Amino acid sequence: MSKENHTSKGVLTSLRHDRMASGYDRMASGYDRMASGYDRMASGYDRMASGYDRMASGYDRMASGYDRMASGYDRYAR
Questions:
Q1: Cα torsion for 36, 39, 45, 46, to the nearest 10°?
Q2: pLDDT digit of tens for each residue in the chain (78 aa)?
Q3: SS3 at position 2
Q4: What are phi and psi for residue 2, nearest 5 degrees?
Q5: Helix (H, G, I), strand (E, B), or coil: what is residue 1?
Q6: Rounded Cα distance, 53 and 46, in Å
């Protein structure tokens, strides 16, 4: 095997390794973006849950208000 062939093989191997490393970098970047997306989704679900909690609290206050109204009507009816 001539030195030229050996050198070009080395260059090709080096290029192949560079492409593989670049591919792994892109994969890692993709996984990072996926993780970021899942974090944003979880944050969105947390905000939704917080909104439902506030809604439930509002309904509780409404029910309490209706109870007070009913109590007032009962007192008025006596």
A1: -140
A2: 445 555 566 677 888 888 999 999 999 999 999 999 999 999 999 999 999 999 999 999 999 999 999 999 988 887
A3: coil
A4: -75, 165
A5: coil
A6: 10
CA distances to 40, 50, 57 from 47, rounded to whole Å, are 10, 5, 15
Q: How far apart are CA 40 and CA 45, in angstroms?
A: 9
In whole angstroms, give the CA distance from residue 70 to residue 72: 5
Tally of residues, the chain: 78
Token duo for residue 29: 């970047």
For residues 46 and 40, give the distance between their C-alpha atoms in angstroms, rounded to a whole number.
Answer: 10
Give one word for 2, left, alpha or beta, with left for phi > 0 and alpha for psi -120 to 50: beta
